[in-house]
Amino acid sequence: MTDYEGLLDLLNRHDVKFILIGGAAGIAHGSPRLTLDVDVVYHRTNENIVKIVDALANHAPYLRGAPPGLPFLFDAQTIKNGLNFTLETDLGWLDLLGEVTGGGSYEDLLSHTIVLPIFSSSCLCLDLPTLIATKRAAGRPKDLDAIAELEALREESDS
Fold it and tell me: How many Å apart are CA 29 and CA 55, to the nearest integer?
């Protein structure tokens, strides 16, 4: 089970620059749809990458779905060499995305965010139109299923 509050609090405490996207962002906007992970687009600066590594160092980050025992070193060089990481940690599942389909990088998405209160803190979240666009671009059945609900939330917030 993913500790959503624990993961978001951990990233915030370490001053990681990230944008909440995916199902957790939908929930922050009012969706009742369940999600099993926390999806974030992270800023790919050297400083922020070090903050991510420091934040997760004591939480056993490992590639989700990888065979047990597969050598995996979660360090700054690994993140720099990669882009998107689907991780399991002792706090649950965390998807660290350098880019997201239909939205781009942290810098591309920053102007499409709003600050929303989540648990005991607040996070940058994709705004509803951009969240809908990224789900549409991903095209997975579970994302397409969520679009009508997110559009209803957008219409409600516009009125």
Answer: 26
Q: Which of 140, 136, 111 is nearest to 126 (CA)?
A: 111
Q: Rounded CA gap, 53 and 39, in Å?
A: 16
φ/ψ of 154, rounded to 5, equals -65, -45
The CA-to-CA distance between both ends of the chain, in Å, stands at 36
CA separation for the pair 135, 132 (Å, rounded): 5
pLDDT per residue over 92-133, tens digit each?
Answer: 999 999 999 999 999 999 999 999 999 888 999 999 999 999
Nearest to 122 by CA among 9, 1, 3, 4: 9
Q: Does the pLDDT at position 15 exceed 70?
A: yes
Q: Give per-residue pLDDT as tens, 49-84.
A: 999 999 999 999 999 999 988 999 999 999 999 999
Query: The whole model's pTM is what?
Result: 0.93
| Token pair for 42 | 């992270």
SS3 content of the chain, % helix, strand, coil (to 5): 45, 25, 30
